[in-house]
Amino acid sequence: MPDRLSPQANRSSLLDALRGFALIGVLLANLRMLSLYDLLPSAQKQALPTAAVDRVINELMSMFVNGTSITLFTLLFGVGFSLQMGKAKGSAPAMRTYLRRLLVLLVIGLAHAYLLWWGDILRYYAVLGLLLIPLARLPATVLVTVGGFVVLVAPLLLQPVIPNLLPTQISSGESAARALAAFSGEHLGAMLEGNLARDLRMRIAVWILPTYIFGRMLIGVALGNAGMLTHPLEHQSRWRRLWWGSLVGALLITALVSTRRYDIVELPLGFLGEERERSLWRVLYNAAPLGLGVFYMASFVLLYVQSSRWRAVLQGPAPLGRMALTNYMAQSIVGVAIFYGVGLGVGPRFGAVGVLLAALLILTAQAYGSRWWLARYRFGPMEWLWRSASYGKWQPMTLGPQARGAGPDA
To answer: Got the DSSP string for 344-384?
Structure first.
């Protein structure tokens, strides 16, 4: 009989480990853009010496990493929100502190986006986190239903309206070419201008992103309200059902999407009509990373709570997760320092293979660095700054006897 997680175990340890695991995927996905590889036109990608291996890496990343890493990270933000609301219990001072947390996160996100990397996600978490407040006490089933609707159906309803309200943008290829030139150059001013231009263009082009994120937040809140991550032992049957459901659903949807992406076989969907068929494919493309992300989470939780051997392995990313904000920001800093012209100027010359190697080096350094830091201090640097600004006073940083081994805030 497998060793099981004791009820007395630190309830935040699972959340730390999951955050760290999600952060690994976030780096892999983001580094494709930070390395400038994704900005290259197809012809230049094909001309790279690593092109053959790159194609395999790109397909695997597209199917199993890119959307699922954001899914996991966003679900966990929703869980964290639920825990914060549980601590607040309607208290006015606690709610003011939470609102300040979101405001500070917004400032950090804007600074990150405009000074470092246009792909920042923190701004969305800060703004959409406000919308979670009036929905926090809804039943879990309602939150999941609304979250699924926002992710899968809302984009279809908004598609005829939103694009017509947005200003016309330059083409994707031209925007990528300008960004590549700005980021490859050695002038900081040109890099910052290119960053702003790319950011503005992508916020408009990817207008669907708020629905993508907010729906996942709602599902995360449902998981948090139900106590499925803070008391996983009590919800093992639910996690098993979720595992089987997400496995079957993710496999089926991924298979269907692959038939279209790789022209394996043409499905007989003409009876739906052109518009309905197109809508169905949009739903499936949106559902695939959500289903796979939930499958990853369910697999992680079940292995974590049922096996001491697996728990020891899965605890590996926990220090990364305890310093998730610091590590997320540091990944952008290191990516710019390595690949951009204002740094070492390595650029995309080593293709997706170089992205994987760089990610391995960065994650190794962050894993050791996080472990070293947390053995001495209560919070990561950015977590400490975020917490201090939220409470309006400097928080104790040195790791005292009572704080040793404590987990982070939700």
So the answer is: T--TTTTHHHHHHHHHHHHHHHHHHHHHHHHTTBSS-HHHH
Please compute, for residue 286, the number of CA atoms within 13 A of its CA located in the half-sphere on the CB side: 24
* CA-closest candidate to residue 118, choices 201, 195, 18, 34: 195
Q: DSSP state, 50? A: T
The span from the CA of 120 to the CA of 327, in Å, is 13
Q: Do 182 and 144 contact (CB within 8 A), yes or no? A: no
Residue 35 pLDDT class (50, 70, 90 cuts): very high
Vertex 64 angle, CA 243 and 20, to 5°: 75
Per residue in 328-346, pLDDT (tens digit) is: 999 999 999 999 999 999 9
| Structure confidence at residue 6 (pLDDT) | 47
Quote the mean pLDDT of the chain: 90
Q: 342 near 192, Cβ under 8 Å?
A: no
Listed residue (381, 377, 373, 371) closest to 404, CA to CA: 377
CA–chain centroid gap for 124, Å, is 11
For the chain, percent helix, then strand, then coil, each to nearest 5?
A: 75, 0, 25
Cα 217 from Cα 212, distance rounded (Å): 9
Res 280: pLDDT: 85
The two structure tokens encoding residue 403: 């704080």
**Where do we find the tokens 């974590």?**
304
* Amino acid 407: pLDDT: 41
Query: What is the average pLDDT across 358-386?
Result: 96
Task: Identify whether the C-beta of residue 369 lies closer than 8 Å to the C-beta of residue 57.
Answer: no
Specify whether the backbone of 116 is left (phi greater than 0), alpha (psi in -120 to 50) or beta: alpha
Identify the three-state secondary structure at position 386.
helix
In this structure, which amino acid lies at residue 101?
R
